[in-house]
Amino acid sequence: MNQGRPFVYADARLKCDGVDVAELAEQFGTPLYVYSANQIAERAGLFQTAFAGVSHTVCYAVKANSSLAILKMLAAQGCGFDIVSGGELARVLAAGGRDVASRVVFSGVGKTAAEMDEALDAEILQFNVESEPELELLAARAAAKGKRARIALRVNPDVSAETHPYISTGLSAHKFGIGIKLARAVYTRAAAMPSIETTGVSVHIGSQIRQVEPFAEALAKTLALVAELRSDGHQIRYVDAGGGLGIEYADKDFDAAEQVAHYAAALKSALGSMDVHLLLEPGRFLVGQAGALITRVLYRKQNGDKKFVIVDAGMNDLIRPALYQAHHEIVPVVTREGSLDEEADIVGPVCESGDFFARARTLPVSEDGDLLAVLDAGAYGLSLSSNYNTRLRPAEVLVESTGARLVRRRETYEELFAPEMP
Ligand SMILES: Cc1ncc(COP(=O)(O)O)c(C=O)c1O
Ligand SMILES: N[C@@H](CCCC[NH3+])C(=O)O
């Protein structure tokens, strides 16, 4: 049970980079997210090394895990950021300082005027514009500030990639981007806008994609457009290849270094000798396997033939199983010698039948009070969490070379009520 995960057993106890997970749960309570700083830095380093031969910037997709502590680490490692909201912009500036804005790209189909203003004020590297009305609004906001907005159009390449339908984005059936065939005409329009500078082209075909061919196909189509745009006189420098590189959630071997190398080789081969600055937007790949959600067994029960293990974390803390039927490995934090296996549903306390972490999963029989670790929960875990059922979201601990540190304390009830005016 490793596959490149930082969570390994020593003396029957789960450790994260040598730190005892059960002790963290005692100290900080559960549910608790625990992350390995080392693995995040290592994964970002793998990306940077794999693309070392080409001019590039790794712009971490903040939505995967927006912890300030993680953003700060990645900023210090030279990463830029892919943001999708004013809130994410505020986070990266808070974590990395104002200078980091020169490495920030802003994606998303629904940017508001206020968010555009914030990003224009911060002087981010580039807006990835997803529609003509958005382009018009951005041109107006930039003009009002006497600025020029650097833009890439996010093109929709109509490339199919095998992943869950909710997280596939590169087909014309999806809301994302501008159809690649229409893009050239939109660039011509954009270039005629005095407050717009056409500096790039971007593409992103979806998330949790394990094959590299669709990425290469999308990039090749994008580069063909870049050639046309250059011949039309646009000074295209940035090609944003998006994110989406998948990880292994099942209990199989996974060699992250090999996966990135394979991905980089495919993109480089599509790139050929073309002179561009490549932007890469990995999210999950950097943080997914670095994190686990630690939860405590509250009760066990049986309805008919079915056994349930009820834990103190719920779908509000980690929604991936409920939303995408996503598989997460679940393991005991402390193993018991000679314990038998049983088949059970691992479920949370939330009042929804969809509140499960695993169904009909074979696991060692647990007892009330035992700790379980839901693995590979570092991406789209806390960042996709909610306070549904007025539940306090988990605390977060970052395990660094100097030891474990609380990087987000548990919320309080008062904080949840604070914005309300009864
Ligand atoms: C524009 C964009 N870039 C990057 C990402 C990051 O994706 P992933 O976490 O799959 O790498 C996403 C999410 O799919 C995205 O929408
Ligand atoms: N939230 C999804 C990924 C979405 C990617 C967003 N662009 C997941 O947990 O797998």
Automatic annotation (TrEMBL):
<keyword id="KW-0663">Pyridoxal phosphate</keyword>
<dbReference type="InterPro" id="IPR000183">
    <property type="entry name" value="Orn/DAP/Arg_de-COase"/>
</dbReference>
<comment type="similarity">
    <text>Belongs to the Orn/Lys/Arg decarboxylase class-II family. LysA subfamily.</text>
</comment>
<comment type="pathway">
    <text>Amino-acid biosynthesis; L-lysine biosynthesis via DAP pathway; L-lysine from DL-2,6-diaminopimelate: step 1/1.</text>
</comment>
<dbReference type="GO" id="GO:0009089">
    <property type="term" value="P:lysine biosynthetic process via diaminopimelate"/>
</dbReference>
<keyword id="KW-0457">Lysine biosynthesis</keyword>
<dbReference type="InterPro" id="IPR022643">
    <property type="entry name" value="De-COase2_C"/>
</dbReference>
<keyword id="KW-0210">Decarboxylase</keyword>
<dbReference type="Pfam" id="PF02784">
    <property type="entry name" value="Orn_Arg_deC_N"/>
</dbReference>
<dbReference type="InterPro" id="IPR029066">
    <property type="entry name" value="PLP-binding_barrel"/>
</dbReference>
<comment type="subunit">
    <text>Homodimer.</text>
</comment>
<dbReference type="InterPro" id="IPR022644">
    <property type="entry name" value="De-COase2_N"/>
</dbReference>
<feature type="domain" description="Orn/DAP/Arg decarboxylase 2 N-terminal">
    <location>
        <begin position="39"/>
        <end position="287"/>
    </location>
</feature>
<feature type="binding site">
    <location>
        <position position="380"/>
    </location>
    <ligand>
        <name>substrate</name>
    </ligand>
</feature>
<feature type="modified residue" description="N6-(pyridoxal phosphate)lysine">
    <location>
        <position position="63"/>
    </location>
</feature>
<comment type="function">
    <text>Specifically catalyzes the decarboxylation of meso-diaminopimelate (meso-DAP) to L-lysine.</text>
</comment>
<dbReference type="InterPro" id="IPR002986">
    <property type="entry name" value="DAP_deCOOHase_LysA"/>
</dbReference>
<dbReference type="GO" id="GO:0030170">
    <property type="term" value="F:pyridoxal phosphate binding"/>
</dbReference>
<protein>
    <recommendedName>
        <fullName>Diaminopimelate decarboxylase</fullName>
        <ecNumber>4.1.1.20</ecNumber>
    </recommendedName>
</protein>
<keyword id="KW-0028">Amino-acid biosynthesis</keyword>
<feature type="active site" description="Proton donor">
    <location>
        <position position="351"/>
    </location>
</feature>
<dbReference type="Pfam" id="PF00278">
    <property type="entry name" value="Orn_DAP_Arg_deC"/>
</dbReference>
<feature type="binding site">
    <location>
        <begin position="281"/>
        <end position="284"/>
    </location>
    <ligand>
        <name>pyridoxal 5'-phosphate</name>
    </ligand>
</feature>
<feature type="domain" description="Orn/DAP/Arg decarboxylase 2 C-terminal">
    <location>
        <begin position="33"/>
        <end position="378"/>
    </location>
</feature>
<feature type="binding site">
    <location>
        <position position="244"/>
    </location>
    <ligand>
        <name>pyridoxal 5'-phosphate</name>
    </ligand>
</feature>
<feature type="binding site">
    <location>
        <position position="352"/>
    </location>
    <ligand>
        <name>substrate</name>
    </ligand>
</feature>
<keyword id="KW-0456">Lyase</keyword>
<dbReference type="GO" id="GO:0008836">
    <property type="term" value="F:diaminopimelate decarboxylase activity"/>
</dbReference>
<feature type="binding site">
    <location>
        <position position="380"/>
    </location>
    <ligand>
        <name>pyridoxal 5'-phosphate</name>
    </ligand>
</feature>
<feature type="binding site">
    <location>
        <position position="284"/>
    </location>
    <ligand>
        <name>substrate</name>
    </ligand>
</feature>
<feature type="binding site">
    <location>
        <position position="324"/>
    </location>
    <ligand>
        <name>substrate</name>
    </ligand>
</feature>
<feature type="binding site">
    <location>
        <position position="320"/>
    </location>
    <ligand>
        <name>substrate</name>
    </ligand>
</feature>
<dbReference type="InterPro" id="IPR009006">
    <property type="entry name" value="Ala_racemase/Decarboxylase_C"/>
</dbReference>
<dbReference type="InterPro" id="IPR022653">
    <property type="entry name" value="De-COase2_pyr-phos_BS"/>
</dbReference>
